[in-house]
Amino acid sequence: MTQRADSGVVPRDARPKEQVVVFSIGDHSFVISASSVQEIRSTDGLGGNVVDLNRPVLRKVRHIVERDARSYYVVSGYEHFHLPLSRPTSVLILRNVPVAVLVDRIEEMAEMRVLLGLPRSFCGEERIWYRGLTVLGHKVVPVAEPRGFLTPDELRRLEKENPGLLQTVVHSVGTSRRERERA
């Protein structure tokens, strides 16, 4: 009896893959696309210049950090997700949005193979916070939306109450502060 030439070949998984950072806040795990994270730093070794907001308008944002000629609003992960107080040890500095997110720990880098839509039970602000859900190992994990940490309206409110602090950043709404002032 002859064997077929391809009998030992395992079919490749053709589903699209996305590299993600798995992080946790308290006992809760989340993932975010690795391509949306510019850098991950320890809160102890963050470096740069940390500036307190003159007029904090959002409970989850009290500081700005300046790194490499760019400024980022520092968003408290536990405040953002309405979780119990925690002790962040890491910060995710995001790409393409002026946001740095405080998280308790980085669990791992992983490969996301499926992105599921949010169930209807997610009916409030979490529809802005999450791109969807994924399965990693035997666990269902929410996938954070990078632009959900600070909405365009929240960014405008922060800039209005603290004018000029993010002069080097182009906001996620597509225009810089100077362009908005000219309009």
Q: What would you note in describing this structure?
A:
The chain has a single domain (25-175), classed as OB fold (Dihydrolipoamide Acetyltransferase, E2P). The protein is mainly beta and 183 residues long. The strands form three sheets. Strands 3-7-8-6-5-4 form a six-stranded mixed sheet. It has helices at 77-80, 126-129, 152-161, 177-182; strands at 18-25, 28-33, 37-42, 49-52, 61-67, 70-76, 90-94, 99-103, 105-112, 130-136, 139-144. The relative contact order is 0.19. It is built from four helices and eleven strands; from the N terminus they run ββββββαβββαββαα.
CATH homologous superfamily title: CheA-289, Domain 4
Please report the total strand number as a whole number.
11
How much strand content do the residues show? 35-45%
The ordered H/E elements are EEEEEEHEEEHEEHH
Structural class determined from secondary elements: mainly beta
Apparent shape: globular
- Report, as a whole number of angstroms, the end-to-end distance: 79 Å
Report the CATH architecture.
Beta Barrel
| Total DSSP helices | 4
Features:
six-stranded mixed beta sheet; disordered C terminus; three-stranded antiparallel beta sheet; 183 residues; globular; OB fold (Dihydrolipoamide Acetyltransferase, E2P); mainly beta
Could you give the topology of this structure?
Layout: E1 18-25, E2 28-33, E3 37-42, E4 49-52, E5 61-67, E6 70-76, H1 77-80, E7 90-94, E8 99-103, E9 105-112, H2 126-129, E10 130-136, E11 139-144, H3 152-161, H4 177-182
Parallel strand pairs: 6-8
Antiparallel strand pairs: 1-2, 1-9, 3-7, 4-5, 5-6, 7-8, 10-11
